[in-house]
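SEQUENCE-TO-STRUCTURE ENTRY
===========================

Backbone structure tokens: a row of integers, each naming the local backbone shape at its residue.

Task: work out the structure tokens from the sequence, keeping to the layout shown below.
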Amino acid sequence: MKINVKKLNPNAKLPVYGSQYAAGADLFACEEQPVSIAAGQTAFLHTGIAVELPEGTVGLVYARSGLACKQDLAPANKVGVVDCDYRGEIMVALHNHGNQTRIVNGGDRIAQFVVAPYLPAEFEQAEELSQTVRGAGGFGSTGK
């Protein structure tokens, strides 16, 4: 699948896959100056790109495992959703879950972008739902 990517800033980098079978392509910070993110704070980081996703797909912005585990930085909204009709800049709200200030520089890998299909649904009100063995059990009800 080919996806059109528009550079909104000449310093922007297109998403890049880290390995042959990687599901997520790295998104890069496109900042003129280093961005300081204090402990417990969130910063909105520019990527400098906009995308044209095919109809029926969505772009999902996930944490990069190394950045989250080693630097305590992960998207504040856990998973960002880029709808296929959105044409604005992809921004990443990076939250510092740690106890020390972190610095993000232009060109740093800040998140990963997964393109996935989705199924639109038509929601209908129902008086009853079908029965299952699980029923209404949730939040750990199926075991450890």
